[in-house]
Design brief:
The chain is an alpha/beta fold. It is built from 15 helices and 24 strands.
Length: 464
Amino acid sequence: MSKEKVYFYYTNDLHSNFEQWSRVTACLKEKQGLRKENKEAFFTMDIGDHVDRSHPITEASNGLANVALLNEAGYDIVTLGNNEGITLSHQELYRLYDKANFQVVCSNLFSRDALTPFWLKRMHTFTTESGIRIGFLGLTAPFNAFYELLDWHVENEFDIIEQYIEELKSGSDMIVLLSHLGISVDQEIARRYPDIDVIIGGHTHHLLEAGEVVNDTLITAAGKHCYYMGEVEIIWDHQRKKIVSKEAAAINLRDSVKDLETEEHLQQLLNQANHYLDQVVTSVEEPLEVKWFAETPIIHSLTKVLKKWTNADIAMLNAGVLLDSLPAGAITKGDIHRICPHPINPVLVDLKGDQIIETVRAARAPAFTELKLKGFGFRGEILGEMIFSGIQVETAFHRNGEIYVKQVYTEDGYPINPDKVYYVATADTFTFGHLLPEIARSAKKQYFVPEFLRDLLAYAVKQY
């Protein structure tokens, strides 16, 4: 035969949304079975952020359950997302893929100590039965403010491509990039490096239902949470020794059938997770009430603990970071995780007094408190009211009835000094994007890893 089809099946940004996973595996079984029956080459891959510690199964297993599920589904190759990279400790990531039955390619992730995990590859080449050589690169987003605190470093993606592209060209017939970098970076890579034939993307949760061609490079991605799964069909001409066709499709899995074996395995994993999460942290005599638009004792305590733990002058946390109240009695690890599931780290930023006043005003506005935020680590419903420790906020009402911030005082009653620099502790969520611009623009940010806010919450509930 002069022409041959090669298929790629992929997932990206599952974020441990295991409700969908049995639909993914059912679709994969069908597609993989069809390809085997037709004696066609196929490869199954994941583009990162499969792991998300907001789910009890991932939290209890430190991501090892995710790897077991990928093994079971017959994956051939994966790259890392930032959720694998920066929500686990150095040792947890170092051991994450020890039992993987697939290749792990992340070309720009480096350990800052002397030891590199045995599973970490810079590139990998698969050869089909007919002799087609497919070279893979994997790249992840360079969140070095976090990675370096965890003793990892992520190199610039363009420097890495420059380093490996010639070797890949000489040793393979086609080049595939597994990119957890986001759509705009993928497009720029396609513009700069036409030798890359296919870019399979993720990170920015974009859905390209039929792919996108930039500079003859096919770019594709399948959204988030595996409501879609990606399929790429390549036609290779053996006589001309080149690709003659590239097509991408996103397969809608929202209402597709589930694989019963996977459902049973997920239930077993959940039972194991619950066994771990049922460990009692403490016991309380009174219920711990959570309200998103009021300061309750539990959010007050958590904000106070954050201030003390980071040695800050001021701490601020949005009440929506706690999702539910807790009844009186025993409080377990599972309860703490359930009401604070976010992969959010504490952060300490330097702000001048006038910037703090501006931040307090922004955080008190309905546009902030009522925002239904998606992303930036936040896994809740609504941001809610900002709660403060270390300052007092005086408010008043305009004639039209709207509330406004009149003055901000220190704990001991003095007006905050607009020119003085204060250490402000908060959730790392607010260092990204434009939610609270003064915090995002702060030149000095100290992130605390691998601790999450829920680690401080466990300490806060023990104060009762």
